[in-house]
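Bumping with the actual sequence this time:
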Amino acid sequence: TRMAIEQIFQSSIKKTDVINLFRKINNRYGIKGITIRNDNGSQFIANDVKAYLRSVEANQEFTHIATPEENAYIEAFHSIVEREVIRRYEFSSYYEAKIIFKNHLKWYNYERKHGQIGRINPYQKWTEYFIDHPEKRHIFETINKSETGSAGEQPVRNSLSNDENMKGILNNIPSINKLSLLNIP
């Protein structure tokens, strides 16, 4: 679906960050039976990460070393981020960069049209999936609740910019059965 469900934006990502990310995703959507594909970064191959994923009955698979084509969805995602955010903006602070990347992720999911999924945005594709799979509707409803924010909070996609050229970062869910994660240097 190309839906990016979570991101980590920090200078270094450790195994505890990855476990916390998986825990958050699992609590919100459930990852039992999901296959998680990632590279061989130390934070992903850590025994604690493997143990956590086993405990929630998620599967973990690794790409071969120096074969980014084995994780083409996330590599394409990183190319988009590089082209449409990193090369385009000069960030005056870490905080500003974090806000722009967060807004970009919302734009990427809800506004950006993707050619590989029929010139619709990832949220539209995600919605189509749940119309065709009513037995998984609880996941769709969870996503809707998590994206609306708390009372009085404006969705992030509207908070900084109406720039139609903003796009998204870090974690990408290319299909309902795969979650791809890579560390961006």
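The tokens above came from a reply further down the thread. The first helix runs from residue 15 to 29.
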